[in-house]
Structures
1.
Amino acid sequence: LILLVMLVGDSGVGKTCLLVHFKDGAFLAGSFISTVGIDFRVNAHTFPFKVRICCRIWDTAGQERFRSVTHAYYRDANALLLLYDVTNKASFNNIRAWLTEIHEYAQQDVVVMLLGNKAESSHNRVVKREEGEKLAKEFGVPFMETSAKSGLNVELAFTAVAKELKHRTMKEPAEPKFQLKEYVDKEMRTAGCCHS
Ligand SMILES: Nc1nc2c(ncn2[C@@H]2O[C@H](COP(=O)(O)OP(=O)(O)OP(=O)(O)O)[C@@H](O)[C@H]2O)c(=O)[nH]1
């Protein structure tokens, strides 16, 4: 069984960098090369550490002109990591539009998680953490801030989604239902990484 996780959000919010960090543990510095259409990055073997499922992660293009390509893939996605950039207000304001699209094109039970990326760049920050939290609450999705540069919550974001998908797939009635939001909150409290 292959589960499909897609990274979506405006161009330049850091989707490719987040994935590269997760995969290679390194920040992709230097020039910004925009993703063209759908880009396959990671295959099944990225999750052997804690979660034994196969996850394929797709990095999508944020640019408007590739949107129709992305739409076509939404319906196959099991989970969507929706990113905005905390140093770019427009990318945050566009989250509502992204969520509307997701509701329109994705599967009804798709797992969505909102990520405020570039959280380490405190000098350029224009979106407060509380704003992200509020928006996520409004739409009933889990939220965390991440940084592909410092590595903040990168592994947690992917692991939490993978765990949720695993629990859904296993459907073991004896086990209590996995609560993605509670898991994320707990992990962040434990790590003490809530404040950036
Ligand atoms: N400071 C900081 N910069 C970041 C971070 N993540 C990405 N960047 C920078 O943001 C720019 C865009 O990153 P990408 O990962 O290519 O963005 P993308 O969302 O994949 O863009 P598209 O492919 O066009 O959709 C690059 O110049 C990165 O170096 C981060 O966490 N912190």
Note: Helices lie at 15-24, 67-74, 89-93, 95-105, 129-139, 154-170, 180-191.
2.
Amino acid sequence: MGHHPHQSSASSSLTDSNSRRVVVGAAILDDKHEPGQMMLARRKAPKSLAGYWEFPGGKVEAGEDLEQALRRELQEELDVEAEILDRIESPEPQGWLLGNGMRMQVYTAVIISGKATALVEHDQLAWEQLDSTALHAFEWIPADRPIVDALLEQLSR
Ligand SMILES: Nc1nc2c([nH]c(=O)n2[C@H]2C[C@H](O)[C@@H](COP(=O)(O)OP(=O)(O)OP(=O)(O)O)O2)c(=O)[nH]1
């Protein structure tokens, strides 16, 4: 009895679809100083999210800081080297609340090397004007829509 609680809490931190893991995402811009377009990516999996558009990115791994994690994800998912620019300010400092209870921090970024390619996570990439109507015409993961608005607001400052 004495050992059980310890064991289960140690393993749950690795195996839960836990709400503590942080997600990082990128609003990839076409130009660092005068952005006109951003890139969106359409998910292939899981089934519940397949077909929805998102900010490319993923979960931060142990030992990484957020920007390192994001650069790694962009390399793995899109085969590009990226420079991370600014954090999109979120209502709470921990980041944007996602549908599954996780938090996501989103950064603007530019590609510094390579041509973005949909590899395993996505089946389509799109460049779109930084315009509210144009961007909201895509079927985003619902939790991402307020982030799109905050991005546009922040870029217009
Ligand atoms: N990458 C990304 N994930 C998002 C966005 N919006 C949103 O709700 N999510 C959710 C979907 C997933 O549940 C989670 C991110 O997980 P992921 O599957 O992209 O992470 P990962 O690449 O590290 O994959 P894995 O190791 O879990 O297989 O956050 C978004 O804009 N970008």
Note: The beta strands are 22-29, 37-43, 53-54, 57-59, 81-87, 96-97, 103-113, 122-129.
